[in-house]
Amino acid sequence: MEILIAATKTCQHRPSLEKVLQGAWLPYKVNYFEDHPEIFEKYQLKHSPLLIIDEKVASAGMPEIDIINDLKAKIRDISEIRTPKRVKNHMIPKNIGTEPGLVEVDTTWGSIQSIKAARPVHTVGELEVYQHHMKGLPIIDARKPDTADCVTIPGSKNIPYDELVERMDELDENDPSIFFCNGPQCPQSSTAIKNLLDAGYPADRILYYRGGMHDWITLGLPIQKS
User: Fold this and answer.
1) 121 and 67 together in one domain
2) What pLDDT digit, counting tens, does each position of 65-90 carry?
3) Cα(57)–Cα(26) distance, rounded to whole angstroms?
């Protein structure tokens, strides 16, 4: 569903309409007639703003509350209120220029994961991952190689999520392993954890780092080539 506000730059009602859409958690974009004369020609502007849904005028001027409620009812999943996916995206934050500490983040890819991969499995953050590493305990990179961009958390071992059940004998028999992937939008490590549990692997030997490479890099933590 594409929601568009078409308005003149001097329209006094546009900010109010934006506030209504924001309050309803409805994603939208704004096109000004001054910058897009083709919209003026297509919709024959007589009122400003126009609320356009999937290229059809839903309201001229401020919409009735029933229109907003109908739009809200069509949103069934959080993914539908996210920024639309880019055609060419990148899963891992990329360095900007040569200055360290500046990265570009793509917010459009993947699907948002729950904070818990499974009910009996504990979720950890960066401090726990660091302490785990300093104790020499196992950290598993559950990403497939073609999604890893050749970088990983230092000290981690790569076992792709779709191979973990077959390779359970490579996991530590005594200590819990931390599993991670590319971050809150990436399902690889949560899928791996669910597969392990289904195969009978003990939940108390599984820890889930939901932040993954996304949070690890954006927090300026060290990485290594994989």
Assistant:
1) no
2) 999 999 988 888 888 888 888 888 89
3) 16
